[in-house]
Amino acid sequence: MARIPALPVFRIAGRRVAVDVAHLAFATGIVGWCVWFGLDAWQSQADVENLIMIVPAAIAALAFYVAILVGCFRVVGREDDAVSQRAPLRAGMGAKIAGTMALLIAYVVTGPWIGFDVTSFGYILAMLLFLGERRWLVLLLVPTLFCVLAVYCFGTILGTPLPLLLVPDFGS
Length: 172
Prior knowledge:
mainly alpha, 3-stranded antiparallel sheet, 6 helices
């Protein structure tokens, strides 16, 4: 049986507290980038068209961070070290994580060349297949509806042109 690695335990305010340092550091890096991006966008052009999606996303990232921050600290008793144990990843999870990262990189790299609509459809379809979806109706409808809705929102509501190949630009 594999040994489960223990979380580091610190004394904080007279109590023993297990801290999920790796998770906390990762979440801090993500929220730090989100806040920096939001502030940078605000400083560069503080108008509604520029900030309509960036500021709410940065605020949502901060709210999620607070929830993650609270979950990273666990008070442990003198005899109760079970709370400070981290369960190992299930078999195959590393491959799923690497696969989703590879698909995201492919999406970002191919988007400007192929077009937002085709690349988004392909990315969502590939992710659904990779994560186990096999119903053909879901495999066709979810990417199609997302692409049409995203192109409509970017073109009409935000007035932002996208590199498109198949879906008509609703903003023009």
